[in-house]
């Protein structure tokens, strides 16, 4: 009772004083044109940055680079399983309007004279009841406040189902074992848990005054996520759940609009929104709602065993301009910075540790050029059109078989978007009093309906070729062999039959041992014939290592499209008792689909042994023992203290290419500030830790399948287009945040499942190898466009801008050609015409400098090499 009283006193005091703090507040609403902030319609550019996929030390730089790229809003999911790893039980204390004056006086006395004692006591009592986690990478409030400090808005996608290629779609695994639960449907236990967590998050945001109407940055909230397809599958219970979720969210009174993405029947006042590679044809379900694109996919995720997808900057810009010209007013890049699936957070299963997503800011937080710069310029062009875009609906006129113009014209403003949907041919169109050249699959933007300031297919920003270079000397390794478990071990549980893996492990580890004995009589025929029996194991996934009498017999694994696996191999058995030890390995829990409560993993059988005197023996129903996790995990071998608990070997005794082996080494932090990664190309499969922090799963032994080849930006993009790494590891380099390192005495621990060569592991740093520009003659210019439009500047000449990162200078001009050069950055070559002084101009103006600019005009390069042809400049400079 005393605890309740003290908590109540503190809450009343905070409410009393917070109500008297003046803040700058704003209202958020919407109409059919746009989201309205403080009475003003806004064209909003948003970018997804997920706070757990980077470190708090990275957040300010990522947010600032997004702002520099023209982003107005940061969008993030809320990661339920990161915040509530075990069921929260926070005491709910109501506010009482009749709180007595004497109690208030007593509380004020304590607050003034014993504040430190009171707050320490209250929060100690609170903490004993609280199972939530909002620290380090999961410090949501800190992240949002950093967004606010940068002068940006925030879109909070509470979900709490998030998908996001995140483990179990963001759901905590304990939720799966709530009695009677059915996920994402009209189910009491699920709705109760979902509402409790949603109320927790909204309550936190309110208490920190983070909603826009409180003076905070949050302008939009989201409930549920991409539920429309699920509702369609399950019918009436799904519709009831949709209505309940919407009603529940609205009643929380956030003061900002709520959205539901991919939810055509989102009930009022919910705004239904679009996710996809393209959303130009999307229309909300009511005429008075704005067109919002919650996920404009900047690329695609990488799976272990799959190639790495890339979305061309030209197509990304084309899709956004097309959405805007069709009346769209809010577009969010998913992702703007993808980051890293640290630890065991990757879902799928089989989602890679890297969540780079080919985003404008790469996994390491560096601008991906030309995508970052090309989209920055697009945002500038769109903002020039904003007064017209929010004033009227477009008038659409055909300009040809695959061309059209969208005009936004009112009494005082006019903006036009000229579009060419042909995937092969450039065209010249007539609009107003002018003629305009449109490259294939492109849109030109005219903020005054006369002057082209931007074309989606013309890259005005530089491109960068990144490289990974050695950052440290070789490591000195020690090894420790993980023991193969057996049914005789003390820390096992024995039951009849085969049990589902996650039901046993509760996803506390990737690993579960299935252990049983097989008795072979002396008269078995195979003992004499030498025809070893066939062991067949059916598993729900995701990977399996089979040991017979302590020796590795083989390995099997599934893939993203089908995580199930079958192991079938002849095995060597001897007379007497033979020990079968199966190490089942999870590679992330599924993040999308129906009925999360039914999903499973592990050896579910049947397990059979064929080729005995009796024929086939079914081992599925006999006694099996289970051991959760690895011995090395329980000993904490990845930590400084735990690693001292066993004897390690080194030198000539170091284990190499041996399954189930732990490795450790001590090292000093590599010098400099460049982002770091571990090159794991010499290893097979396992996990890595730096100073006890789990970097993630490594699996360079899983080679990327599929086809890779040339990439043409023109034409509809999908995740199978423009891929790289075919025939190579899906992921070779693994990001190590510098904030996880000490100047010296760092511990790197690696657990290797397959067997690898640790001497091949090295630190590398990510840096710029070369920078390129690819500029067309007469390319649109954003700068000084009004002077151009007014006639003060005649025939503007574009410039090629090159710049190296801080600390580097241009040391060499690798390629330069004004004329008709071919290829792309890193593989340029001369075309049918070439200006003979192309190199001279750049060597004279750029070598030895961090940055330079050269005007793209024939006289600069020694004359016009082909007067009757359209020309461009391609240049590549080496940074060092």
UniProtKB/TrEMBL annotation:
<protein>
    <recommendedName>
        <fullName>Beta-galactosidase</fullName>
        <ecNumber>3.2.1.23</ecNumber>
    </recommendedName>
</protein>
<dbReference type="InterPro" id="IPR048913">
    <property type="entry name" value="BetaGal_gal-bd"/>
</dbReference>
<dbReference type="Pfam" id="PF02140">
    <property type="entry name" value="SUEL_Lectin"/>
</dbReference>
<dbReference type="InterPro" id="IPR041392">
    <property type="entry name" value="GHD"/>
</dbReference>
<dbReference type="GO" id="GO:0009505">
    <property type="term" value="C:plant-type cell wall"/>
</dbReference>
<dbReference type="InterPro" id="IPR008979">
    <property type="entry name" value="Galactose-bd-like_sf"/>
</dbReference>
<dbReference type="InterPro" id="IPR031330">
    <property type="entry name" value="Gly_Hdrlase_35_cat"/>
</dbReference>
<keyword id="KW-0472">Membrane</keyword>
<dbReference type="GO" id="GO:0005975">
    <property type="term" value="P:carbohydrate metabolic process"/>
</dbReference>
<dbReference type="Pfam" id="PF17834">
    <property type="entry name" value="GHD"/>
</dbReference>
<keyword id="KW-0326">Glycosidase</keyword>
<comment type="similarity">
    <text>Belongs to the glycosyl hydrolase 35 family.</text>
</comment>
<dbReference type="InterPro" id="IPR000922">
    <property type="entry name" value="Lectin_gal-bd_dom"/>
</dbReference>
<keyword id="KW-0812">Transmembrane</keyword>
<feature type="signal peptide">
    <location>
        <begin position="1"/>
        <end position="26"/>
    </location>
</feature>
<dbReference type="Pfam" id="PF21467">
    <property type="entry name" value="BetaGal_gal-bd"/>
</dbReference>
<dbReference type="InterPro" id="IPR017853">
    <property type="entry name" value="GH"/>
</dbReference>
<keyword id="KW-0378">Hydrolase</keyword>
<dbReference type="InterPro" id="IPR019801">
    <property type="entry name" value="Glyco_hydro_35_CS"/>
</dbReference>
<dbReference type="GO" id="GO:0004565">
    <property type="term" value="F:beta-galactosidase activity"/>
</dbReference>
<dbReference type="InterPro" id="IPR001944">
    <property type="entry name" value="Glycoside_Hdrlase_35"/>
</dbReference>
<feature type="transmembrane region" description="Helical">
    <location>
        <begin position="93"/>
        <end position="113"/>
    </location>
</feature>
<dbReference type="InterPro" id="IPR043159">
    <property type="entry name" value="Lectin_gal-bd_sf"/>
</dbReference>
<keyword id="KW-1133">Transmembrane helix</keyword>
<dbReference type="GO" id="GO:0030246">
    <property type="term" value="F:carbohydrate binding"/>
</dbReference>
<keyword id="KW-0732">Signal</keyword>
<dbReference type="Pfam" id="PF01301">
    <property type="entry name" value="Glyco_hydro_35"/>
</dbReference>
<feature type="domain" description="SUEL-type lectin">
    <location>
        <begin position="794"/>
        <end position="880"/>
    </location>
</feature>
């Amino acid at each position: 009772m005393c605890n309740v009283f003290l908590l109540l006193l503190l809450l009343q005091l905070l409410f009393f004083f917070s109500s008297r703090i003046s803040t700058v507040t704003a209202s958020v609403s919407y109409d059919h044109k746009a989201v309205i902030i403080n009475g003003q319609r806004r064209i909003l550019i948003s970018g997804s940055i997920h706070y757990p996929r980077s470190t708090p030390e990275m957040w300010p730089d990522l947010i600032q680079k997004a702002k520099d790229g023209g982003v107005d809003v940061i969008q993030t999911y809320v990661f339920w399983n990161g915040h509530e790893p075990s069921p929260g039980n926070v005491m709910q204390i109501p506010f009482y309007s009749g709180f007595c004056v004497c109690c208030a006086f007593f509380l004020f006395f304590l607050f003034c004279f014993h504040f430190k004692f009171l707050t320490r006591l209250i929060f100690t009592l609170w903490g004993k009841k609280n199972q939530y986690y909002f620290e380090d990478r999961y410090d949501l409030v800190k992240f949002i406040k950093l967004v606010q400090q940068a002068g940006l808005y925030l879109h909070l996608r509470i979900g709490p189902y998030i998908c996001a290629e995140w483990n179990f779609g963001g759901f905590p695994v304990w939720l799966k074992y709530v009695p009677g639960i059915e996920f994402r449907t009209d189910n009491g236990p699920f709705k109760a848990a979902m509402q409790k967590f949603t109320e927790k998050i909204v309550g936190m945001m309110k208490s920190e005054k983070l909603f826009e109407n409180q003076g905070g940055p949050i302008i939009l909230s989201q409930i549920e996520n991409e539920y429309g397809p699920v509702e369609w599958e399950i019918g009436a219970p799904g519709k009831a759940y949709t209505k309940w979720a919407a009603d529940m969210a609205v009643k929380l009174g956030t003061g900002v609009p709520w959205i539901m993405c991919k939810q055509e029947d989102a009930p009022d006042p919910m705004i239904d929104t679009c996710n996809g590679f393209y959303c130009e044809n999307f229309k909300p379900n009511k005429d008075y709602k704005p067109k919002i694109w919650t996920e404009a996919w900047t690329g695609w995720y990488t799976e272990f065993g799959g190639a790495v997808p890339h979305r061309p900057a030209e197509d990304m810009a084309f899709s956004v301009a097309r959405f805007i010209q069709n009346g769209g007013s809010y577009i969010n890049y998913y992702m703007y910075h993808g980051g890293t699936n640290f630890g065991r957070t990757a879902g799928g299963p089989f989602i890679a540790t890297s969540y780079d997503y080919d985003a404008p800011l790469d996994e390491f937080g560096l601008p991906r050029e030309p995508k970052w710069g090309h989209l920055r310029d697009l945002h500038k062009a769109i903002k020039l059109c904003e007064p017209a875009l929010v004033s009227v609906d477009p008038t659409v006129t055909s300009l040809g078989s695959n061309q059209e113009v969208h005009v936004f014209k009112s009494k005082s403003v006019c903006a036009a978007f000229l579009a060419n949907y042909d995937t092969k041919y450039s065209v010249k169109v007539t609009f107003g009093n002018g003629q305009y050249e449109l490259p294939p699959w492109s849109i030109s933007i005219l903020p005054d309906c006369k002057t082209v300031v931007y074309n989606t297919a013309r890259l005005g920003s530089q491109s960068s070729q990144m490289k990974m270079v050695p950052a440290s000397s070789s490591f000195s390794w020690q090894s420790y062999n993980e023991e193969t478990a057996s049914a005789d071990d003390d820390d096992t549980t024995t039951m009849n039959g085969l049990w589902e893996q996650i039901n046993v492990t509760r996803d506390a580890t990737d690993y579960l041992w299935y252990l049983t004995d097989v008795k072979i009589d002396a008269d078995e025929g195979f003992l004499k014939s030498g025809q070893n029996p066939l062991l067949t194991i059916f598993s729900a996934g995701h990977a399996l290592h089979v040991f017979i009498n302590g020796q590795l017999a083989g390995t099997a694994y599934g893939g993203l499209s089908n995580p199930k696996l079958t192991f079938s191999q002849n095995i060597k058995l001897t007379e007497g008792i033979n020990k079968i030890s199966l190490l089942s390995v999870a590679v992330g829990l599924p993040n999308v689909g129906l009925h999360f409560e039914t999903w499973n993993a592990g050896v579910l059988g049947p397990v059979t042994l064929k080729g005995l005197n009796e024929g086939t023996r079914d081992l599925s129903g006999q006694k099996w023992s289970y051991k959760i996790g690895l011995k090395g995990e329980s000993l904490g071998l990845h930590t400084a203290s735990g690693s001292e608990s066993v004897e390690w070997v080194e030198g000539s005794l170091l284990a190499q290419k041996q399954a189930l082996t732990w490795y450790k080494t001590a090292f000093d932090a590599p010098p400099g500030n460049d982002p770091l990664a571990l090159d794991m190309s010499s290893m097979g499969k396992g996990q890595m830790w730096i100073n006890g922090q789990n970097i993630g799963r490594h699996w360079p032994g899983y080679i990327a399948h599929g086809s890779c080849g040339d990439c043409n930006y023109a034409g509809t993009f999908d995740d199978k287009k423009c891929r790289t790494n075919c025939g190579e590891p899906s992921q070779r380099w693994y990001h190590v945040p510098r904030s996880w390192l000490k100047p010296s005495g760092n511990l790197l621990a690696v657990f290797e499942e397959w067997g690898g060569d640790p001497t091949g592991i090295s630190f590398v740093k990510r840096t710029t190898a070369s920078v390129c520009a690819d500029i067309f003659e007469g390319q649109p210019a954003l700068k000084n466009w009004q002077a151009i439009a007014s006639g003060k500047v005649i025939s503007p000449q574009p410039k090629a801008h090159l710049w190296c990162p801080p600390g580097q200078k241009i040391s060499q001009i690798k390629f330069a050609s004004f004329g008709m050069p071919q290829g792309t950055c890193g593989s340029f070559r001369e075309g049918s015409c070439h200006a003979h002084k192309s190199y001279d101009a750049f060597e004279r103006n750029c070598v030895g400098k961090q940055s330079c600019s050269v005007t793209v005009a024939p006289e600069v390069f020694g004359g016009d090499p082909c007067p009757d042809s359209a020309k461009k400049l391609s240049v590549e400079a080496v940074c060092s």
